Every structure is written in structure tokens, then in C-alpha cells.
């Protein structure tokens, strides 16, 4: 005679809920990781593009910073809170433009820690000489 403890009746719905919850959380974690990597790549590309734009002979370094902010705003939204600072520096190869972009690191969707993601890019300064 089977005891109540050996009875499997009703275990399938519980198993479905538990496995479904686990798979849903795993899927959401992978999607969140993809969002974080996407935002990091956008911020990096914007910093590089801003550095090269600000290093042009007929542009000021500040133009590169505004270009970087514009690119981040176009890719992930203006409310994302990315700020860029451009500074002229002297490197081993000559004058350079350094653009540093600070943005929000997304933790849940695009909501995250403001200022936690910082990317710096350099570009050689061009001149008409």
C-alpha cells in the first residue's frame, strides 16, 4: 500500500511554477546583461567619436564633448544623464584631445547608478601647420 508521502499527485503544477520562475529570472538576467553591455559600448563609441571630432583642426575640444553627449542621447535617450568633458592634453606623440564620458550604469532596465560608468578616449590633435 502506498503512503501519502509517495504520492506524486499535484507535483506537476508546483514543478512547472518553480521551473518557469527560474527560467524567467535567468532570461531577464541575460537581457539585463545585454542592456548593460550595449550601454557600455554606446558610451565608449561616443567617447571615441567625440575625441576624434574635437581633435579636428577647425574644432574646439569642447565640440567633441557636446558631440559625445549628443551621440549617447540619440542612442539611449536624452534622459539617460550622460555628461562629457573634453580636455586638451600632451601625449608622447604630441598634442591630444581627451574626452571622458560619464553615464548611468543600468541595473534594472535602463535605471541604474548615475555616474558609475566612465569611459575615456584620446585622439591626436590635428592642425593646419
Number of domains: 1
Largest beta-sheet characterization: 3 strands, antiparallel
Derived from helix and strand composition plus strand pairing, the structural class reads alpha+beta
Count of alpha and pi helical runs: 2
Keywords:
129 residues, alpha+beta, 3-stranded antiparallel beta sheet, single chain, 3 strands, rod-shaped
Write the layout of secondary structure elements.
Layout: H1 11-54, H2 61-76, E1 83-91, E2 94-108, E3 111-124
Antiparallel strand pairs: 1-2, 2-3
Helix pairs in contact: 1-2
Task: Describe the fold and architecture.
It is a single chain. The protein has 129 residues and is an alpha+beta fold. It has one domain. It is 47% helix and 29% strand. The protein is built from 2 helices and 3 strands. The protein has helices spanning 11-54, 61-76, and strands at residues 83-91, 94-108, 111-124. Strands 1-2-3 form a 3-stranded antiparallel β-sheet, with helices on one face. A hairpin with a 2-residue loop joins strand 2 (94-108) and strand 3 (111-124). Helix 1 packs antiparallel against helix 2. The longest helix is centred in the first third of the chain and has 44 residues, at 11-54. The radius of gyration is 24 Å and the shape is rod-shaped. The mean pLDDT is 90.
